[in-house]
Amino acid sequence: MRKKAPFLILFFLPFFLSVAAFAQQKTIKGNVTSKASGEGIPAVSITVKGSGEGTYTDEKGNFSLDIKGSLPVTLDISSIGYQQQQVEVNSLSATVAVSLETASTLGQAVVISATRTPSRILESPVTIERIGATEIRNSPQPSYYDIISKLKGVDVVNASLTFTSPTTRGFNGSGNLRLNQIVDGMDNQAPGLNFSVGSIVGLIGLDVASVELLPGASSALYGPGGMNGAIVISSKDPFRYQGLSLEAKTGVMNIDNKDRSASPYYNWQLRWAKKVSDKFAFKVGGEYLEATDWVANDYRDYNRLGTTGGLKNGTRSTDPNYDGVNVYGDETTADIRSNVFNPLAQAAPFYAPYVNSFPASMPVSRTGYNEKDIVDPKTFNLKVFGEASYKITDNTSLNAEGYWGTGNTVYTGSDRYSLLNLKIGQYKIELVNNNWFLRAYTTQENAGNSYNATVTTRLVNEAWKPSGGATGWYAQYAMAFLNAKLTGETDIAAHQYARGVADIGRPAAGSAEFKKLFDKVRSIPISQGGGLFVDKTNLYNVEGQYDLSAKTSKVADVLVGANYKRYVLNSEGTLFADSTGKIPINEVGAYVQITKRILKDRLKLIASGRYDKNENFAGRFTPRFSAVIKVAEDNNIRLSYQQAYRFGSTQQQWINLRVGGGTALIGGLQTFKDHYNFTSNPVYAIDNNLFAGNPQVANLGKFKAETVNSFEAGYKGLLVEKKLLVDLYGYYGVYHNFISRTLVAQSVNGDKSVFTDTAKVRANLNNPALVTTYSVPTNVKSNVNTYGFGLGLTYSLPHNFLIDANVSSDHLDKVPAGFIAGFNTPKLRAGGSFGNTGFGKQNRFGFNIGYRWQDKINYEGDFANGVVPAFQTVDAQVSYKFFDPKILLKVGGTNILNQYYINGFGNPAMGGLYYVSIGYNVF
Amino acid sequence: MKNIIINSKAFQILIAVISVTVFSTSCNKPLPKATAIDYPPVNNNTTSIGELISSDTSYSFFAAAATKTGQLAQLNADSTEYTVFLPTNNAFRASGIPSIEVVNALPVQMLGGIVGYAIIPGRQFLSTTVSSSFPNEQLPTTITIGQLPGTPLPFKLTTFPSVSSGGFYDNNIPVTKPDIKLKNGVIHEVAAIVAPPSQTLKDAIYSNPDLTYFKAAIARADSGQVGLNRIDSLLGYAATNMTVLAPNNAAFQTLIFGFAYSYLLQQGYDQASAALLANTLASGPVVFSNPVLYSALPAATVRGIIVYHFLASPNPYSGAYEPNIRVFSNNFSSAPTFYKTLVNSVYSTHPGILAQATFTGPFVSSLKFTGLGTFPPGGAPFSGAPASAVSMDKHAVNGVFYVIDKVLLPQ
Lengths: 923, 411
Hints:
The complex is a heterodimer.
Chain A lengths: L5 H11 L9 E9 L10 E4 L5 E3 L5 E6 L5 E6 L6 E5 L6 E5 L9 E2 L7 E2 L8 E4 H6 L5 H4 L6 E5 L5 E5 L11 E4 L2 E2 L20 E8 L3 H4 L6 E7 L7 E11 L9 E13 L4 E13 L8 E5 L2 E5 L14 E2 L4 E3 H12 L4 H5 L6 E3 L3 E2 H4 L3 E14 L4 E17 L3 E18 L2 E11 L4 E2 H12 L8 H14 L4 H12 L9 H11 L15 E10 L1 H4 L4 E13 L13 E16 L4 E12 L2 E16 L2 E12 L3 H5 L1 E3 L5 E3 L3 H6 L8 E2 L2 H4 L14 E14 L4 E13 L2 E9 L13 H5 L5 E9 L4 E13 L4 E13 L15 E11 L5 E10 L2 E4 L4 E4 L2 E12 L4 E8 L18 E8 L3
Parallel strand pairs in A: 1-7, 13-16, 38-43
Antiparallel strand pairs in A: 1-4, 2-3, 2-5, 5-6, 8-9, 10-15, 11-12, 13-14, 15-16, 17-18, 17-52, 18-19, 19-26, 20-21, 22-25, 23-24, 26-27, 27-28, 28-29, 28-30, 29-31, 31-32, 32-33, 33-34, 34-35, 35-36, 36-40, 37-38, 39-42, 40-41, 41-44, 42-43, 44-45, 45-46, 46-47, 47-50, 48-49, 50-51, 51-52
Helix pairs in contact in A: 5-9, 8-11, 9-10
Chain B lengths: L1 H23 L24 H7 L4 H10 L12 E6 L1 H6 L5 H6 L2 H10 L1 E3 L17 E9 L6 E6 L1 E4 L2 E4 L2 E10 L2 E6 L10 H6 L5 H10 L9 H6 L5 E6 L1 H18 L4 H11 L17 H9 L5 E2 L6 E2 L14 E3 L13 E8 L2 E8 L16 E10 L2 E6 L7
Parallel strand pairs in B: 1-8, 9-16
Antiparallel strand pairs in B: 1-2, 3-4, 5-6, 6-7, 7-8, 10-11, 12-13, 13-14, 14-15, 15-16
C-alpha cells in the first residue's frame, strides 16, 4: 500500500481513531478556517503524524484531539478542496488556529467502489464517475439523484418526478434491472417490484458523502445484476460530519403545461449528527418532498399487440379502436363483427347479408380516461433515517442504520402503475473493522395502495357497464352502430354515434361518481378482480468481507467476501404466483480479488472472481481481470475484461399478472409452463408466420441467467499543468442468453384453427375468449453485442472556475431478427458545464450551468414502443452565502428553457423546475 | 507540449460539436398530437347523390318525388353512404307515371315508398360487389316497417339486388346503367320503379280470388300445427323471406278432380258417375274443409304437397332447410335447375323442384316448374307438361309468389 498518499490516510483515518484508556490524556484544541472566506471548515481531517491518532473538525471548524504521545507533535490537516497543511504543536494551552488555502480538486478524489478498497480515481482499473458532496451542493439539480443523469455515458428514464431510473451502456427502461444500486452496503432494489428505489427511498441529499458510478459490467464484486453497472452511494459518517444541517427548497413547475397549471414544489431536508463521545456518534434526519407530478400525456393512437406494438394514426373520434398511449381503459377491445353482428345475423337472417358486407373484423375499444384523470397528481416523498455508530475497539465499530421511505410516485412497467403510499424500509446492522466487515440487512417492501392504472381503469369501465352480455356496452354499441348505418351514416359516423349511445351515463372524469367507482376498484386486490397489488416482499441479506492483505501483501493483496440472500415473495397472488403462500428464493455468492503491483508500481494487475448460485438457476462463476498502467505520474491507462451476469429478477422468475392489454405476464420457470399446459396445448410465436397463417410452436427453452462479457480500455490523466482532466473509454460488450420477454399465443380451447385463418388471426389474438397471449421471459439465443465510447474533459480555470465537456456514444450491434432489444439508448449524447464552487468576496458566490443533449431513441418497452425525440436541457443555479457564511441561498432550475421533453416512451413530459433554496450548514 | 495541442484541439472540436448541436436543435420538439384518420369520400367525386339527382334532368321525376317527401336532403350529407336504385324519368314512364305533374299528384305516402325503397342506407353496393351466387342478398332499404322485438333495431323493408348472366337487377327490375359513383355512394339507374311491397304474403295470397283453393289447402295443411310451423303463420310473419309457388284454382280443381276420379273408380264407381262426383268435389275449395273427406284427404298429405311449393335453402348455421330465400323470376336459371323446397326440411336429400326461366332481353318471358311426382303414382294422366307461371314476381313484404297453373307433387 502506498502509505504516503494522503488520500489513503484520509480514508483509513476512521479505523485509527481510538482512545487508549491506559494512557494519560492530553487534548489539543484547534480551529480550521478557510483563508478565502474566513469561515470554519467542517469535516477536516486532523491526524497526528506518525501515530495514526486523529479526529475531524465539527461543523464550526473546531476540533479537539486526545493524544497519547508527548509534545511536540505534527498535525496533518487535510480536506478535499484545500491544500494540505502541517502544523507543529508544542503546547496544549493555546488553540491551534489553521487557515487553509483552497486547492484544485481535479483528479484528487478517492473512490472505493471500483475495487472495494480505496484508490485514487485516477488509478481506477475500470471507468468510474464520482459525485462528491461539493458537486451536490453546487449542482442545479434539485435532487442529488438527478445529478447522476448528467454524468457521461448515463441515461435516465423518468417515469415521474421522483421515479428516476439511471443506467449506462444501454438497455434502459423505467426501473431497469441491469444496474446494481448499493446504498451504504445495501442493495437498494425493491425485492418485489424489482426497480431500484434510490430516488424514493434511501439517502437524503444532505447526508450523501459520495455517489460512485461504475458503468459497465460489475457483478464480479457486487453480485449478480450488475450487467450494466453499479451505483454505490455512501452516506456521511456521523463522527466526521456533525451538527445540524437544514435545507428548504421551494420551487415552481408545470409552467405552460397543457395538462396542468403551474404548481409548487417543496423539498425540505434535515440532518443532525452528534458525536457524543469518541466512541459513539449518531445521526438522524429526514426529507419531505411534495409537488404536483408531471403528467404523461401522449394521446397518440397505439396499435397494441400483447406487450408490443407501435404508434398508428388515429384519434378517439376517428379510430373506433383507439388506444391512446396515456389513455387507459381503452385497452379493452372487442370485435363487434364476430361478437355481436355475426350472432345477430344468425338470429335475424334478414340482416345477415347487410352485416356480411361489413368489414371482416371491426375492433372497437372502450372509451378510456386520460392518465391525468386517474392518477393522483400529488406526488410526495417522505424519507427518514438514522444511524448509530459505536466503536467497540480502536479498529472495530458496530453500526446500526435504518432508512424508511414512503411516497406517491408513478412507475412504468408493462403498464403505468400508480405507486400510492409505497413504503420501503431498509435496516442494517454491521460490524466494520479495518480489514473486514460483517453485515446483515433486510429490505421490507409494502406496495401500500399501489395499483395498476391501466387494469384499474379497464375494470372501472366494467364496473360501470360490463363489456359483454346482451345489454353490455358492446351490444349497445353495435346496435347503435347498426341503427346509424341504417340511416345512411358512413362507418366512422356510425361509430361515433354508437360510442355516444353506449357511453350515455358514463361517469365523467373527475366527477364524484367516477372517483367513488375508481377508488372502489383500485382498493380491491388484483387477485379478487380489482386493480390493487399487494406486495409485501422482503429481502434478507448477510454478507462479509475480509481483506487478507496484511498477511499476503508480500505476494499480493487479497480480498475475499461472501453473501447469502433470501427473497421472500409475498403478493397474496396479486403479482406473483403466490396465492397459496409466500415463495422464498435463496441465493449465495462468494468472491475473491487479488491485486498485484509490479514494475515498480507502474503496472497494477487485479484479478477478481465471483461465484453465485440461485436456487432457480445454475451456479455461475464470473471473472474480472484488469490492469492499470501508469504511463506518467497522474496518467493511467486501464484495461479490463469483466464478466457479469444476472439471474432473472424475482418477477422474471415468478410473476403471474394479467396486464392492461390482457396479456398474461408469467415467470420464466418451468412450473409456469407446466401450469399453463404449454406441452399439451402448444403456444405459438406471434410473428409473421402466424399472421401468414402458418403458426410455429414457440421454442421457449429453459430459462437461464444472462451474462455479459465486457472488454474495456480507458485513459484517465491530468494534463496541461494538471489543469485538464481527461477521461476516455471505449468498450465492447457481448451478451449471452440475454433475457427478454417474448410474446406467445395459446388457443383457449386447444384449437389451432384460431391461428390459421389469416383474416381473423389479429382479431382472435385480441379476443380473450379464444386466445391467451403470454409474455414469457426467455433467453435470446444468439449473442447481443454493444459497443461505445465516452470522452470527458474537465479544465480548471483560475479562481476556482471549472469547465467540462463530455460526449459519449452507445451502439447496439448485430440484433437478431425480430428481437425486441429494449436498448433504449441514444447513439450520441453530449454535454458540458461551467461553474464555480466559490468566488468573489470571501468566495461567497457560486454558480453552475449545465447543458446536455441526446439523440433520439427508438424506444422499446413493455408499456409502449415509439420514438423518443432528441432533446436538450439547460440547468443552472447561482448561490450566495450570507450573514453567517453557513447560510446558503441558491436560486436554480432544471430545464430552464422549459422545453418539455420525454426520456422514455409513454412517460410524462417534463418541463422546467425553478426553485429557491435556503440551506444551513450544507457541507 | 504535443499532448497539450492535441487535447486543446480535441477540446475545441468537442466545444464545436456541442455548439453545432445547440444551434441545430435549438428547441425540444413538443410531443406530437394524435393524428386524426382522414376518411375520404366514399368515391373520388365531388358531387353527392343528392346533388346529382337535383341537377340531372333525367332524374327530375325522382327529384320531384324526393323533394315532396323531404327525402332528398339526406342524400347530400357528407357523413353518409348510400346505394340508390334510381328510376330515371323513363323508368317512371315505364311504370305508368308519365309526367312530373302526375308524380306531384301522387300521395306522399306512395312517393315516400318509391323513394325510400330505392335507397339502401349505409353501404355502397356495386355491380361488382353484389353477390352473383344464388340465393340473392337481402338488403335493408330506408323504409322502416317495425321494430325488432327485444332490440333497439328497426325492421326494414328489404330489397334484393342480384347479378346473374342476365345482368344486374334490383328485385326483378333490370339495372340499365350501373355504378354511377358519387361522393357519398352509388347510383344504379333502373328500367322501372322498383315498387315497394305493401302486404304480407298472407294478405296478398288470401285476397287473390284465383288462390282460394291454395288458401283452403294451407288451412288444411296447418291442421294440428302450432306457431311458425303453421304455413299460415309463416305467410303472415313479416320477418320471413319466402318464395311461394301458388297453384291457382284451376290447378287445384284439376288435381282434385283427377284425385277423386281415380279414387272413385277404385271404389267401384262407373266412369260417368265418378266424373260427375269428382267434378262436384273439385268445384269449390270447401273440399279441404269437409270433415267427411278428411280421411280421404289427410292433412299430412295436403301439407306434403303444400310445402313442396315453398322454396327453401339451408340455414347457414344449422343446415336445416328453411323458407328463407326470395327468388325473383330473373334469379331462376335459364337452364333446367333443381331448387330445394320445404320438403327438404323433412327429407333433406329430396331433389326439389326443377325450374327453368326463359329470358327475353333482361326480362323473363316464361317460367316453368316441374314437380318430381306424377299422378297417380306411376300413372300417366297428369304427368305431362310442367307448370307455368301465369303471374310472376308478385312481391310482398316477406316474400315473392308466383301463380302457377299446376299443382306440383313431391313424389
